[in-house]
Amino acid sequence: MSSSSPRPPRPWWVGIVSGMASYIDAAAIVSFGIAIIVFQSALELNELQVGLASGALTFGVAVGAIFGGGLGDRFGRRPVFTVTMVMIIVALVALMVAPSFAVLLAGAVLLGLGTGADLPVSLSTISEAATDKNRGRLLGFSNLLWLAGAVAASLLGSAVAAQGMTGVRIIFGHLAVVALLVLLGRLTIPESEDWKAARARRSHGVAAASTDRTRVRELLRTPYAAPFMALTGFYTLTNLIANTTGQYGNYVLVNYGGVSLQTAALVGLPVLPISIFGCLWFMRIADKPVRFRYFTIGAVFQVLSPLAIAIFGVNVVTYLVSIVFTAVGTAFAFEGIMKVWAQRSFPTLLRTTAQGLIIAVARFAAALVAGVTPVLLAAGPSVLYGILAALGLAGCGWAWLVFRTRDAHDEFGSGTAPQDPTLAGTDLPASGHAT
To answer: Which of 51, 203, 211, 279 could form a disulfide with 415 if both were Cys (CB 3.0 to 4.6 A apart)?
Structure first.
């Protein structure tokens, strides 16, 4: 009696469950930013302690991305994305009950490590469960989940922040429940077939083309050096625009635009529908050759966004125009296209390592620049936003030069069954997806 092979998971189920890493990432950042204000009063924290706790979360994400990416390629996607979700749950519980700064700091570090390690592994899990027809769409859906996490955390935080530590417990409790449900959902997802195939060939001593390369130094050699460096530069430099807008937008409006905090908090609300529409439209075109044309358009808007403030100064109108440009730019020339290109540019056993390093460099750079942003603003908003426009132009230009010829390249289509006579007659799987 022959046994039937297990039915592969549905790509959209994998996309939702694994894509929730982006929801948790956004919600964790926003939730912590709200909660730290409450912790400052409840635990009597000084400015140094507030800075250390906030920085610990940011640097934890960066460090976690490095190690999570490497571990995901070495030990498999499933064990890593299971362990990271357990780490996140433990961290959230610690933050819910934090009686001291030491526990708060430990929770922030663990939350950052777990979230950062989870991101590259989850993205690879999504792409390897997908086909060439829906891979970009599923990766684009993770951007929509990121936006949902940020909005949900903001709305919940604004509703319960006045309740002090009870509000903090509600904020982190919501995220812990979501993480627990995600963990249960992930237990239904088997190991990536692409990863199993590549590891099987590696264990048999078969060097099957480029798909089984595992050493990190391969990322600095042909043919992977160009896309790796371009994606790192592109994502790092454009992320500085997005991070500055998110972290210092209200600060700039209040201190340099003469706007009240209440008004500043409402300025971004009209742009939310544009952001949602942009995410949905990117999902529509992410698997089509036209995506590079959209990237070019998005890149122009990425540069125009800080340039509007650099040239015309800070007021409600220029800031609103700037964040509308940001919404369009980030939809087509930011994290979404980075995810698509990163999945397609690297082989199976380097995929999460490459993404982890790209994410880590971007987060480290954002943390460092955030620390000097007030100093740059003191020289005038035009100085800061002029620098951001130049960095955006450099990052988008670098990606444009490399991917105008590499956009159609796809490592998922390069794997073939190993032609080794010593393996004839075995059940050794081949990489790649039939479409």
So the answer is: 211
